[in-house]
Design a protein that fits this description.
Low-confidence stretches: 1-16
Number of domains: 1
Structural class: mainly beta
Order of helices and strands: HEEEEEHEEEE
Distance between the termini: 47 Å
Mean pLDDT: 87
Strand content: 25-35%
Oligomer: single chain
Radius of gyration: 16 Å
Number of helices: 2
């Protein structure tokens, strides 16, 4: 079997799937594709949040049951605790949205006005 090289890894089918967001630091997600909304799933007990081109808010629809279903609805499921995102659930999450605002999602304040709020008006 040939040795794995960086060229081999780049051509691997899973690495060709480009996510519509970037992870920055320990708790920041940067939304980068306006054609796909991000469905942020933190923990089973926490409410689901949607990041769209217009901002961040609670997701009140039924969560897609698979990535394929999400793709049909122009969404991408983002499991915060998965190894390819942060590797653990987060109490505090920052989201840089396409509307040029950075949002602060504080899961310790669920049910209050402080749960999702604009953290920075112009982050660029």
């Amino acid at each position: 079997m040939p040795a794995l090289t960086s060229h081999t890894l780049v051509n691997h089918p899973m690495s060709n799937y480009e996510r519509p967001f970037l992870v920055s630091g320990r708790n920041t997600i940067i939304h980068k594709q306006k054609k796909l909304d991000l469905i942020l799933i933190n923990d089973d007990r926490d409410p689901v949040v949607i990041v769209s081109r217009t901002g961040v808010k609670l997701f009140t629809e039924e969560v897609p049951s698979s990535r394929a279903e999400a793709k049909e609805r122009y969404m991408d499921l983002v499991d915060i605790a998965s190894a390819d995102v942060f590797g653990e659930n987060k109490t505090l999450l920052f989201v840089q949205a396409l509307n040029n605002k950075e949002y602060k999602i504080d899961y310790s304040k669920v049910g209050t006005d402080l749960f999702i709020r604009v953290h920075q008006e112009n982050y660029i």
